[in-house]
Design brief:
Blueprint lengths: L1 H13 L15 H10 L1 H25 L2 H5 L1
Helix pairs in contact: 2-3
Amino acid sequence: MKTALAIAILMATTLPSLAHPGEHGELTSLSSGLAHIAGSPFHVVLLLAVIAGGLAAWRYFKKREQSPSDRAS
């Protein structure tokens, strides 16, 4: 699990930015950043995709850690 997380972090830092066009000058505080993310369909879809991917990875690794006898029950 630690290796997979390290690989995912390294891969994410080498990917090109997928930023949408437009200014981000209004992002001066945490609350304005959260409002920007919640108000942008692009960011909402991206956030949902990250959450879904994280949950899928968590379930995959959790099942993988179970022993074969645990899976039968």
